[in-house]
Amino acid sequence: MTATERDGLQALIKLANTVKSMAGTNPKPDLSPLFNRIDTLTDQLPKHTDATLLHYLHRKSYEKARRWLEGRETENQTGSCRHI
Q1: Using CA atoms, how far apart are residues 17 and 84, in angstroms rounded to an integer?
Q2: Rounded to a whole number, what is the distance in angstroms from the first to the last CA of the chain?
Q3: pTM (predicted TM-score)
């Protein structure tokens, strides 16, 4: 895993944790900085990055991207685009 992928995984985990905590939070947190960070890191990934990971990130399938980075790709379900 590259340093950028590690940073991306951390950002995806932070996003997931923030979303989970939103039910009991008022006012709701601004998620746009997290989305911007993930987009920035996606743009910084090297050209040889796995096409599946890039697909997930470009399609904003953040849970699938997180599972892929965690080595849990087998838990991902086929999406509407027919890509796992």
Answers
A1: 23
A2: 21
A3: 0.86
Count the Cβ atoms, other than its own, within 10 Å of residue 32: 8
Query: Which of 13, 11, 70, 15 has its CA nearest to residue 44?
Result: 11
Alpha-carbon distance 76 to 65, whole Å? 9
Instruction: Quickly count: other Cβ atoms within 10 Å of residue 56's Cβ.
Output: 26
Alpha helices in 1-84 (DSSP H): 3-21, 32-44, 51-58, 62-69
CB atoms within 10 A of CB 83: 14
Q: What is the C-alpha to C-alpha distance for residues 66 and 45, in angstroms, rounded to an integer?
A: 15
Q: What is the pLDDT along the chain (84 residues), one digit of tens a residue?
A: 999 999 999 999 999 999 999 988 889 899 999 999 999 999 999 989 999 999 999 999 999 999 999 999 888 877 666 555
